[in-house]
Amino acid sequence: MSAHTGTGSRGSSAALRRLAARYRRQAPGEPRAVGYLYVLPALAVFGVFLLWPLGQTGWLSLLHWDGLTRASWAGLDNYQDLLTDPELRAPFAHAAVLLLFYAVLPVAIGLLLTAALTRFRIRGMTFYRTVLFLPQVLAMVVVGVAWRAVLAPDGLLNDTLGAVGLDGLARSWLGDDTWALPAVGAIGTWVETGLCLVLFLAGAQRIPRELYEAARIDGAGPVREFFAVTLPGLRAEIAVALTLTMVAALRNFDLIYITTSGGPGNATSVPAYEVYRRAFESGEVGSASAMGITLTAVIFALTMVVTRLVEGRRR
Amino acid sequence: MNTSRTERGVTYGILGLFALIALTPVAGILSTALSSQSSLDTGFALPDGLNWGNFADAWTRGHFGSYLFSSVLVAVAVVAATTVLATLAAYAFGTMRFPGSNWLFYLFVVGLTLPQEAVIVPLYFDLRHWGLTNTYWGLILPQTAQSLAFGVFWMRTYFRNTPRSLLEAARIDGATHWSTLTRILVPMGRPAFSTLTVIVFMWTWNEFLMALVMVSDEAHRTVPLGLAFFQGQHSSDTALLAAAATLIALPVVLVYLVLQRRFIQGMLTGSAKE
């Protein structure tokens, strides 16, 4: 940065004149200062209601504040607590479990189904695609209400278990200390699998048919065909699917709020829910902000890792 | 290609099973919404007739009429504001070069993965300070800001992909940058705009956390928030709860069924890919 300002100050009036001359030209795609004018309204709204609060969250995370009285300086205390306080660490551990259910499982199921579905032309694919993608467009609040009815003590799942003689397995899924988290995770799997499948099917259609034919001529069975042709051909789609589902898993607030409110105990508390609870219910604004910032950092890091590893991009 | 009959059978079987799993909770809600209110079962219920009255009850007793009004108002405003602002900014990013344009564009792209939890806390204190909590503005402005990340990203791709020659021709004909945008690029971009519209509409319609934090009075409650409170108060009233859930999901599902391709296309670009 400093090196550039050094050269800029020398003969700046000539440079300015050159710049001005460049901007006077009218060709689209050419350098034009009027671009700033077009960007300005969007940037203003984006800046005031997103970027500025983001900076403020960073600032608040360095304070002890209950939201009412005077705040006091905390330094990195709030972040240190995230590492040492088991009550603050637990939400992140739960989020890691949910990542399995929201991202890993749907991608795996999606890939398996894609392998089966690309072997020949499926009739009525539009119908299946529409149905499988449907959970994605439902409000999470609605999904939560629907799944509470499935997982309730007298809900569909327990009724089904009873009907096939497995009464012993029936339980209050969302009220059970061990089973609440996997139960919420299963809802995530239900929501995200369709997205992965639709994405992979679209990608598989772009894989040249000749590659499959070549593989078959070489005597490859379905399994070898999958690993040699389908999987490598879907690299980009897998990266997109992982990114979308992981972000969905970590942003997960609505579903937890509706189904369990973090309970029983704190068995299903996740960072997104803890931010809300601490900031607006228990008056620990600084701690909530530190959690929000950490969650953001985790999301950015994971997104970056996925893009690099799976897609193999160098940038 | 040669595939055996059993393989086909198994494939359709698997597909059917997954379709069934995807549809069961949805069908359960629909069926419960039409069942009678006397049922004490908190699970799904099979209707003993078509009790359309549940919807009327949800509308009046559950106040969903007024919640729907709030939701429609906020969604329309956010979609309109996002479309206009994103188009203007994306036009500059997509067709003009100016110092810092890449840097500014990436600033918007960051918003694609930014979780709401990173901004919601100070945003609440700011909006309260400005007197915007418990107003529609308190819902419209932050959600517009959030949607702009996708909007700018999406529309820039559209402007990037319009043929250079078209812009050149417009310039030779003496069109200004403004008339090139309004007379040529906007009318041409209907597919891009319809994707943007349905995606932003869906996000805004389904938004929960923002409404939960910014709105505490009943007058400005949107439908997802209404459903959450309704569940808290009438959790044993499964038929009404299901009817309310159906009312919320219906508008988006209907648009989805008509414009399925646009939905899928837009949602799958949600991850920043450059």
TrEMBL record, chain A:
It is a multi-pass membrane protein. InterPro entries: MetI-like, MetI-like_sf, UgpAE/MalFG_permease. Keywords: Cell membrane, Membrane, Transmembrane, Transmembrane helix, Transport. Residues 92-306 form the ABC transmembrane type-1 domain. It is found in: Cell membrane. The keyword Transmembrane applies. It comes from the Bacteria. The chain crosses the membrane at residues 33-55, 92-118, 130-150, 179-204, 225-250, 288-310. The keyword Transmembrane applies. Belongs to the binding-protein-dependent transport system permease family. This is Sugar ABC transporter permease.
TrEMBL record, chain B:
InterPro entries: MetI-like (IPR000515), MetI-like_sf (IPR035906). PROSITE patterns: ABC_TM1. Its main location: membrane. Pfam families: BPD_transp_1. Belongs to the binding-protein-dependent transport system permease family. It comes from Streptomyces oryzae. SUPFAM superfamilies: MetI-like. This is Carbohydrate ABC transporter permease.
